[in-house]
Amino acid sequence: MNNTKRFLVIAAVLGLAAGLVACSTVTVSTDYDPAANFAQYKTFTIMPLEQFKNIPITADRIKMAITQEMQARGLQPASGPADLEVNVFAKLAQETQVTSTGGYGGWGYRGWGGGMSTTTIQNVNVGTLVVDLVDAKTTKPVWRGMASDTIDPKSTGEQKQEALNYAMNQMFEKYPPGAGK
Predict the structure, then answer these.
(1) What is the CATH number of the domain that holds 55?
(2) Phi and psi for 160 in degrees, rounded to 5?
(3) pTM value?
């Protein structure tokens, strides 16, 4: 392989690796009551975030991200009784993450040569946020979204808000159910 082709292959591999690193690791799932008439819901209220009563900055970030996504889908914060009540729950856990890199050999001066690999084992914080939408009249849950992602303790407030906004956007992407069909 000539130097130009080798350079292009290496550049392509590095570009792909950089793209994968830039991707978020957020995992999202949703579920809903297929009998619910989502067209009837016009207003919402976010219920008190008791779990975050001692962390008002986090509570405000969560409320802002939810409000932004619900308004983007045509729902408005209620000035009186709401059609939907929004309940939020969170869980923080530590998980073991195993990462292996390298391990590829190649042809060298004396034939095939083995490559080196590195395996790193570390504990990472994983946060899970659950958002339940409850019909205020029937008190029946009609929709649930869950988002999980690793939490970087070194991230700034702005980075935390961006990550939360992204997770909420992914969570509410298919709300209301059937809208994208």
Answers:
(1) 3.30.160.670
(2) -65, -45
(3) 0.72
Which residue in 78, 66, 79 sits closest to 145, CA to CA? Answer: 66
Domain ranges, residue 162: 25-100+116-171
Residue 121 maps to a domain? yes
Phi, psi at 28, each rounded to 5°: -125, 140
Q: Report the largest interatomic distance among the alpha carbons of the chain, rounded to a whole angstrom.
A: 79
Element containing residue 10 per DSSP (H, E): helix 3-22
Which tens digit of pLDDT belongs to each residue from 50-107?
A: 998 899 999 999 999 999 999 999 999 999 999 999 999 998 887 777 887 766 555 6
d(CA 40, CA 74): 11
List, for residues 124-179, the tens digit of each pLDDT value.
778 899 999 999 999 999 999 999 998 888 889 999 899 999 999 999 998 988 76
Instruction: Give me the number of domains the chain comprises.
Output: 1
Cα distances (angstroms) measured from residue 24 to each of 70, 103, 113, 151: 22, 25, 35, 11
Spatial distance between the Cα atoms of 62 and 161, rounded to a whole number of angstroms: 8
Neighbours of 150 (CB within 10 A): 14
Residues whose CB is less than 8 angstroms from the CB of residue 92 and which lie 6 or more positions away in sequence, other chains included: 125, 126, 127, 128, 151
